[in-house]
Design a protein that fits this description.
Blueprint lengths: L10 H5 L32 E3 L7 E3 L8 E5 L20 H9 L4 E6 L1 H4 L8 H16 L3 E6 L20 E2 L21 E2 L7 H11 L5 H15 L6 E5 L15 H20 L6 E4 L4 H5 L15 E3 L13 H15 L4 E5 L10 H14 L2 E4 L22 E2 L5 E2 L4 E2 L4 H7 L3 E4 L2 E8 L6 E7 L8 E6 L8 E13 L2 E16 L1
Parallel strand pairs: 3-4, 3-12, 4-5, 5-8, 8-9, 9-10, 11-12
Antiparallel strand pairs: 1-2, 6-7, 13-14, 14-15, 16-19, 17-18, 18-21, 19-21, 20-21
Helix pairs in contact: 2-4, 6-7, 9-10, 10-11
C-alpha cells in the first residue's frame, strides 16, 4: 500500500558523483562502494549493549555509539475491538519494514502483548512467538534493529464498560485496551467508568494494577516468567536491540507503586531475562525501563530508586510527549529525562513521541524543534506510531462507537474505509533527516536541518572503538550534497534504503559537514 522511497531510481546515477570532486578543504575521499544499480541489501546489524557512567550510550560490537531512531509498530499487538466491524490493527508485512527503512529509520519498537504470549495461564503461545520471530527476520533483511516492547494501555483488554451500563456524572464509558490477559485482571468488581475521560483512573484499572504490584495470585510472577521465556527464544539474535520491560506502567492505589514496587518488578523481569538469555545460549541485550504513565501526561513523575538493579546494560526510556500530552516545553521534557538518566548513570531512549494534528503541517514546527532537541542531546527515540487502524481503541471513544475521520498515524488512514495515505513530508522529511548511524567516539556537535540538508557532526574518538566504524545516513533528496571532512579518511559512499550511507575512519578528533 505504501512505497515511501521516491527518488530511489536516481541513486545509481548519483553513487559515482558524490565524492568525485571533494572541496579543497576536505581530505581526499576513498573509493566508492556500492556502485551497482539499485540498493544493496543491508548486512545484519552488529549486536548492541548499553554503557554506564557519565558518557553512557548505546554502542555496538565495534564500540561505536548508535542512535536508535525509529517508529512504533503495533501490528502484532492485541487490542480491544471497540467496534466489531473494524479490526483494531493493520496486518504486519515485510513491506512495512522495507518502507520504514526507506524513511531513514534504523529501528522499530515492536509491540508485543502479554495477552497473546500467555492467553491462558501457563500456556506460552509458541505460534505467536513464531510471528515475532518472522517480524525479526523481516527487520534484519531491512537493516533494522528491534526493541521488543511489552505493551499495555490502561492494564488490558478486560476493563471495558458494558454497553448496558450507565456511567455516573463526570465519568464516561471506558474501552478495553491492551496488555494483560483477562485471567490476570483482578478488579474487585470496581467500576470500569473513567473519571473525566482518563482511562488510567477508572477504579477497575487502579485495582488491577494494585493486584499486579502486590503479585496477587502470582500474576506478576507470570509476566516475569513470560519475559524469561521470550528472552530465551531470541537470546542469540543481534537484530533485537533490547527489551522495553513494560509500557507506561499504571499507578495502582499506593504511591509506592510508582517507585519501589515498579522497581521491584523491573528487577525481577531483568533477572528472568538474563536467565533466559543464558539458557538460550545468547548474550545480554539492553533492558529499557520506563517511568510510570504519569510521565507521559505530565513530563515528569516519580521513578524507581537508583539501586533497583545492579544490572548495567540498561537505558532510561521515558515517553517525551512535551507539547503533545504534557503541557511543558520540549526543551524541559528533554532536560527532565536527562536529569533522571544522569542519576542512574544511563542514557536516554525516547520510546514514544509524536504529534497528531488534523493537518501535519500545523505541527511541523514542533516536530522540527523536537528533532533538534534529539540531536542536541544525542538521544534516539521512536515515533508513535506507524499504522493505526480505524478500529484501534485510540480511534473510537467508547465501546461500540465510530472512529474519527482520519487515523493520524505516520501512515495516515481515512476512516472507516481505512485507505492509506502517503507519509506527509511535514513529518516524514524531519524524521528522515541526515543522521549518524554509528560514531566511534563521543559526539560533541550534531545538527541536522531537514529543509536545507545542512548537517554537521563533530566528535572525539573513544579508545577501544574501531576507528573505521563511522556511518552517516543521508536521504536521497540530499544525495548531491558533498561532504567536507576533517579528521576522517577512507570516506566511502554506498546506496541504502531511501538514501546513501557515508562511512569512514576517524582520527582523535573529527568533523563531517554537508550542505
Amino acid at each position: 500500500m505504501l512505497r515511501v522511497p521516491a527518488a530511489l531510481s536516481v541513486l545509481a546515477a548519483l553513487v559515482g558523483g558524490l565524492l568525485t570532486t571533494a572541496p579543497a578543504t576536505a581530505q581526499p575521499a576513498g573509493p566508492v562502494a556500492g556502485a551497482r544499480a539499485g540498493v544493496e541489501r543491508p548486512a545484519a546489524p552488529p549486536r548492541l549493549h548499553a554503557t554506564h557512567g557519565p558518557q553512557a550510550a548505546i554502542v555496538d560490537a565495534r564500540g561505536a555509539r548508535v542512535l536508535l531512531r525509529g517508529v512504533n509498530v503495533n501490528g502484532l499487538g492485541e487490542y480491544y475491538q471497540a467496534n466489531p466491524e473494524l479490526p483494531s490493527t493493520v496486518p504486519l508485512t515485510s513491506d512495512d519494514f522495507q518502507d520504514i527503512a526507506a524513511l531513514g529509520f534504523n529501528s522499530v519498537r515492536l509491540i508485543v502483548s502479554w495477552s497473546r504470549l500467555e492467553p491462558t495461564r501457563g500456556a506460552y503461545d509458541t505460534a505467536y512467538v513464531a510471528k515475532i520471530k518472522q517480524a525479526l527476520r523481516w527487520a534484519r533483511l531491512a537493516g533494522l534493529y528491534v526493541v521488543l516492547d511489552m505493551h499495555q494501555d490502561a492494564w488490558g483488554l478486560a476493563v471495558e464498560t458494558p454497553q448496558d451500563v450507565t456511567c455516573p456524572p463526570n465519568t464516561s464509558p471506558n474501552n478495553g485496551w491492551d496488555g494483560a490477559p483477562a485471567w490476570a485482571t483482578i478488579t474487585d468488581g470496581q467500576s470500569t467508568c473513567r473519571p473525566f475521560g482518563t482511562r488510567e483512573l477508572a477504579p477497575a484499572v487502579l485495582h488491577a494494577w494494585q493486584h499486579f504490584y502486590d503479585d496477587t495470585d502470582g500474576i506478576q510472577t507470570e509476566l516475569v516468567r513470560t519475559w524469561g521465556r521470550l528472552a530465551r527464544d531470541v537470546a542469540t539474535n543481534p537484530t533485537v536491540a533490547g527489551y522495553d520491560l513494560l509500557n507506561e506502567p499504571g499507578i495502582g492505589l499506593d504511591q509506592a507503586n510508582a517507585t519501589t514496587d515498579l522497581g521491584a518488578f523491573y528487577r525481577r523481569a531483568i533477572a528472568a531475562i538474563r536467565a533466559g538469555e543464558r539458557k538460550g545460549g545468547g548474550f545480554s541485550h539492553v533492558a529499557f525501563f520506563e517511568p510510570n504513565v504519569r510521565w507521559s501526561n505530565q513530563g515528569t513523575s516519580p521513578v524507581p530508586p537508583v539501586e533497583f538493579t545492579q544490572d548495567q546494560n540498561i537505558a532510561f526510556a521515558p515517553h517525551i510527549y512535551a507539547e503533545a500530552f504534557a503541557g511543558i516545553p520540549i526543551a524541559t521534557g528533554f532536560k527532565n529525562a536527562a536529569t533522571v538518566a544522569k542519576s542512574y548513570g544511563v542514557t536516554v531512549w525516547g520510546g514514544e513521541w509524536g504529534f497528531w494534528p488534523e493537518h501535519p503541517a500545523d505541527d511541523a514546527d514542533k516536530v522540527r524543534r523536537y528533532a533538534a532537541a534529539e540531536d542536541r542531546w544525542g538521544y534516539g527515540g521512536a515515533w508513535w506510531d506507524w499504522k493505526q487502524a480505524c478500529g484501534d481503541p485510540h480511534m473510537i471513544p467508547a465501546p461500540g462507537g465510530q472512529p474519527a475521520a482520519v487515523s493520524p498515524s505516520l501512515v495516515r488512514y481515512t476512516c472507516p474505509d481505512q485507505v492509506a495515505q502517503p507519509v506527509d513530508p511535514a513529518f516524514g522529511d524531519v524524521l528522515g533527516r541526515t543522521v549518524p548511524r554509528a560514531v566511534p567516539g563521543r559526539t560533541t556537535t550534531l545538527t541536522s536541518n531537514s529543509r536545507t540538508g545542512a548537517f554537521e557532526l563533530a566528535g572525539r574518538f573513544t579508545p577501544g572503538s574501531q576507528r573505521c566504524a563511522l556511518q552517516v545516513w543521508a536521504p536521497a533528496r540530499f544525495a548531491r550534497h558533498k561532504p567536507r571532512v576533517t579528521g576522517i579518511t577512507h570516506l566511502r559512499r554506498s546506496s541504502a534504503p531511501g538514501g546513501v550511507v557515508l562511512s569512514g575512519c576517524v582520527a582523535d578528533s573529527f568533523r563531517l559537514r554537508m550542505g
